[in-house]
Amino acid sequence: MTGPPSRANHPTRVPYSLLGIVFGLFVGLIVYVLVLLVLNVNLFVGDDAIPLTSLDWFSRSLPWYLVPGSCLGFLAFTSTPTAAPTIRMRTSLVSLFAIVGGAVAGGFLAGCGYLMLRMLGAPAANLGEALSQLGDAVNSPHDFLRAFLLAGAVCGFIATLYLRGGLLMHNVARLCTGLGIGALAGVVLYVFAYVLVNYPEFPTSSYYLVHFAEGIYSFSPIEFAFGVFGACVGAAMSRYSWRLYGIFALTALLAIVVGYLLYSLTATLPTVPSLKRPFAFGLFVAETFSLTMVLLYSFYTIDVATRKRWNRAPKATPFSKYYVPKIAFQVPTFNEPPELVIDSLKSLLTLDYPEDRILIMVGDDSTKPECSVPLRQFCEQNRIRYVHRTDRKGYKAGALNRLLKVTPEDVDLVAVIDADYQVVPEFLQETVGYFIDPELAWLQTPQDYRNEGQSFLTKHYYLADKYFYRTILPSRNEENSIIFCGTMGILRKQALVEVGGWGEDYITEDAELSVRLLTSGWHSLYVNKTYGRGLIPATFGGYKKQHYRWAFGGGQVMRGHFRDIFFGRLTGRQRFDYLVGNIHWFEGLFLLVIAFSLLVMGAGELLGYQISSHHANEILLIGLVPWFLLVDGFTRLHMVLRRHLRLSFGGTTRVLGMWMAVKFSNSFGALKGALGFKIPFVRTPKAPTRRLTSGEALRQAIKTTPFESSIAAVLTLIGLALVVHNWELSREAGGFVAARWLLSVWLVYYAVIFAAAPIYAYKSYTTFELSALPAPRVARARSVPQ
Amino acid sequence: MTPFLFTEGAGEFLSHAALFLIIGGLAILVLIIALFLVQSLLPLPEGPPVLAAGKGQRRLRPSAGAPPPAPTASRTPPPTIRLWRRRVNDESPVPHIDRALDRFVLEGLGEPRILRRLPGAFHLRLFGCRECVHSPRSMAREGCVVGRARMQEACRQVFGDSARVEEIACRLRGQAACEFEVKA
């Protein structure tokens, strides 16, 4: 049997599918009624309003709502994994009647309230007169009664769903709320645009509220379309329990990106001469990718910043003392300094866990005797299992597979720890208990570091890394789509063996294993608490190599598991996360295309050639891409880093630079991985060297980043030359041409992005402190097993 | 005056709609960023940020939620009258299975270990089962009858009368170890 054990216990979902069809029919009917009402735009008030009785309630279009509704209901109910896979028909019918009753009651109450208000204005003399007023209100197209009835029915519908409770009702109520909030966001967006475009003088106008009211009251088809656009965003995001401004922010961002691309397609690209169109299209593709990435990154930030509830965030509660699975710690190493590995092993020996339930194993691939001999001696003295390989087949994955082969049968869990990590004693006490859930395949804790004060680079690497572990992984954890990060994680041995062990063809075997485990139906968990600290590469060379390897592995995973990610047994959100997690490595390529386009345009301007892009006439628009990348990236990073690490704006800027510094080399790594190239597993060099002088550091920085340095230099030169050129032109013409100046600003801006790599490299070599490495912890005695 | 966006032609209409999207989106985003910048000027509360956990979790929680409740005199708790059905995340505290197993261990009946937890059930393995240790292995035996009964008694003391214990494997029947399923 493959997959988690409880999978086989799931009973048939027939009742759910029937309920889905019925519910879909009901929703289809409601949508039909809403569309019918909304299409009669002046239904509620006005002279041309249509009486309700004259509407064609049973038109031929009704099946077009009922049939897709039932199909969607069927699909939604049968494909959603729920806590209770079946529902009793009686319960579901009662729920359905309760919801319909709630909607009717809501409408009735709202109608009664309206009539009471109306009677306060014009009191009826007796009951007969009151009833005749009611009849007039129902039949009068000028009355607001219908609006009250509709609003009351919708409120009653949602309120009943909430009150009725249960998983299904809860989800439907949440969906309805999301639809409502999203539609509101869409309409607000429309109204802002309406007023800004049609009444640009509104800030100084005395009637600005009237302008906004006019925007709301316009009831145009485009307003309806904006409402639907927002409702779609709200519905898609409803499952995440975001706060109101989260939905508004994502709707706004999506509107900007969609609007920008739509405008390029419909207004600017068609104006480009056909000969110059390939250039314009290349730029357009790069912009599309970059803007999409901005949107995807923003999703994670908004999720973390605005989420109200964390349903899968582990609780800090004690576990059962009767659940004590046997765990094997596997420490792969290759030519690491023996004292570094021994310190790590010492920390494992201090773990607070029954001694007979722990096994420590070292997989040593070292080729140097000065590395392997002391390690072997230490292992023999401390009853640590030492496995030495003479061939490095499969690199780290091969070493782990070898260790897995010699792991005793009675071991339940396998923990993978990098050779430089020192683990705190309570690691197992606080994490192993989660494996009582038989579907849990792996648990990941954050990677943290202990040499962050060693150089300018380590300090900012430490902060940049926090973003991933404080934002991306908590968000992904909510949807069971985290990755195994290669260290400080625990795996269920049964799951690992079932999926065939570690993938030796992949350089990032951890991320690749995660895809296979998730597609096999296993679950994952992220515990957002530091239990161990390792070493960050202290120099830029090491940092770049490490990220290059990760990016290469991301490309390999995309190539090898393309089918699994798109068509495998993953949920929609898991697909999304794995797709974003792997394609974000390619972002640098598209930034490069944009930079190249700017370079060509700037050079053409200097040489007197008109290089046409689709933004030739709207140069201001091209500024949107880097501006959004800058503002959004900065804002989201600062939101998280300020909250978690109390960073200032300056600190956030420097962390942003860390990402930019390796973005381009990462892209090439990812591209090579995706194209099927092979590179050897390069162990990240963490051992410190020495601080360099300024001259040595500059030479080393340029040597480490030749590509980025060259591009930055060319962009700076062209940008500055353009500034001088524009200055001369402005003096001659006696005028100021904003577009020309803007182009030079973008050139310099991109030059700064590319220059981040040599700048960080230089700083890493000149600020290096060998003494900043903390001393190993004093080992504590292991507790007495119970 | 014909308002903006109500012009002829699909291409023109779409480009105007796109500008509407950009302008409206920018307006909202500028407001949100302005609010955030104002917020970032205010001091943060002391202590590390805490992610607000939901009222309960559908899966993946420790075997024990809250600390064990105080023992009650009555073994059968009175039925709770609820006006509405229970909400999804509204879970009552689960009595700690450790309390039941502690009683079992105190009686010297063996050393239990939890193997896994399934929805509404725990799987236990019993090491050093007192009943099996001194008995010869025989397929004819019905298993650890006394051990199962005592474990059920211990579980009912904690979980109430609805708790049931079933033996799913027994050394006396030739299996590797005694295993029980506690349904609570």
Account of the protein in words:
The complex is a heterodimer of chains A (786) and B (184). By secondary structure, chain A is mainly alpha-helical. Among the domains of chain A are: 12-87, no CATH class; 88-164, no CATH class; 327-542, Spore Coat Polysaccharide Biosynthesis Protein SpsA, Chain A (Alpha-Beta Complex). Chain A has helices spanning 14-39, 62-79, 89-121, 127-139, 145-164, 167-198, 208-217, 221-237, 244-268, 277-306, 338-349, 369-381, 395-405, 427-431, 456-477, 493-498, 509-519, 540-560, 562-567, 572-583, 587-607, 619-622, 624-645, 649-674, 694-704, 706-733, 738-766, and strands at residues 327-333, 358-364, 385-388, 413-416, 422-423, 440-444, 448-449, 489-492, 523-526, 532-534. In chain A, the strands form two sheets. Chain A has a seven-stranded mixed beta sheet with strand order 3-2-1-4-8-6-9, sandwiched between helices. Chain A has a three-stranded mixed beta sheet with strand order 5-10-7. In chain A, helix 3 runs antiparallel to helix 5 (145-164), helix 6 packs across helix 9 and helix 21 packs across helix 24 (649-674). The two termini of chain A are 34 Å apart. Residues 6-14, 81-85 and 776-786 of chain A have low confidence and may be disordered. In chain B, strands 1-2-4-3 form a four-stranded antiparallel beta sheet, with helices on one face. Chain B starts with 9 loop residues before the first helix and ends with a strand. The relative contact order of chain B is 0.11.
